[in-house]
Amino acid sequence: MIFLFTDYGLEGPYIGQVETVLYQLAPNVKVINLMADAPRNNPKASAYLLASLIPQIPVGSIIFSVVDPGVGSDEDKPIAIKIDGRWFVGPDNGLFDIVAKQAKEILVWQISWKPETLSNSFHGRDLYAPVCAMLENKEQIPGDRVGWMDKHQWPEDLNEVIYIDHFGNCMTGIRAAYLDKKTILRINNLVIANADTFSDVNVGKSFWYENSNGLVEIAVNQGSVCDDLNLKIGSEIIY
């Protein structure tokens, strides 16, 4: 299976073009659009989000992972990285750092293959999708083995908002398993306590809880905590 994790959005042709290339080169593979609205142009926030989704993905899968504000430059090299039995293909810009930080086994190849035509602005379609197909087809890995380097040294938990869903709930980069339920969060001078679920608090009240991906998420019962607290990607969480 090939999973797509991108900031491409669902509008426009981008996801469809990637899926078209994958169908042409690996017609029997199942392609799952895991996420198309990762934080735009934000590999750091996206890295924590991606790491939280990996436990649901079968070992042996390939994750097309592209949040690439530097597309077209030589700054972030294209890599194929095998982390605990799952393949990740995309730019080496920090997007894989948190998955790798939590891993037992990491094998990295710097991609040297290039297509006949490589757009300056759509390496996802022209470079990363074909490489994913090569891996699916068990072809030779199109690159050279290199060592893994954690260039950014980001912490395992990020005390910031990393994603805002369409309900206005705010995911953080904090793993809930490492936070006591008695912990009080402070956001924009507001004190927020824990509750297990929405029905445990009054309508309009904010709270934090462990979401389905194991992250600390902040919400308002039947409201938008994003609007109520004027939150955005990168808003600081204090505890």
What's the CATH topology name of the largest domain? Rossmann fold
The end-to-end span amounts to: 39 Å
Reported for the largest beta sheet, the result is:
7 strands, mixed
- CATH architecture designation of the largest domain: 3-Layer(aba) Sandwich
Task: Characterize the overall form.
Answer: elongated
- What's the SSE pattern? EHEHEEEHEHEEEEEEEH
Strand order of the largest sheet: 2-1-3-5-4-6-7
Question: What count of helical segments does DSSP give?
Answer: 5
Top keywords for this entry?
single chain; 239 residues; alpha+beta; Rossmann fold; Elongation Factor Tu (Ef-tu), domain 3; four-stranded antiparallel β-sheet; 5 helices; 20% helix; elongated
Summarize the structure.
By secondary structure, the protein is an alpha+beta fold. The chain has two domains: about 1-145, Rossmann fold (3-Layer(aba) Sandwich), CATH 3.40.50; about 160-230, Beta Barrel (Elongation Factor Tu (Ef-tu), domain 3).
Describe the overall structure.
The structure is a single chain. This protein is 20% helix and 28% strand. Strand 12 (206-210) and strand 13 (215-220) form a beta hairpin. The model has no long low-confidence stretch (mean pLDDT 97). It is of the alpha+beta class. Strands 2-1-3-5-4-6-7 form a seven-stranded mixed sheet, covered by helices on one side. Strands 8-9-13-12 form a four-stranded antiparallel sheet. A two-stranded antiparallel ribbon has the order 10-11. The protein has two domains: 2-146, S-adenosyl-l-methionine hydroxide adenosyltransferase, N-terminal (Rossmann fold, 3-Layer(aba) Sandwich); 158-229, Bacterial fluorinating enzyme like (Elongation Factor Tu (Ef-tu), domain 3). The longest helix is centred in the middle third of the chain and has 14 residues, at 123-136.
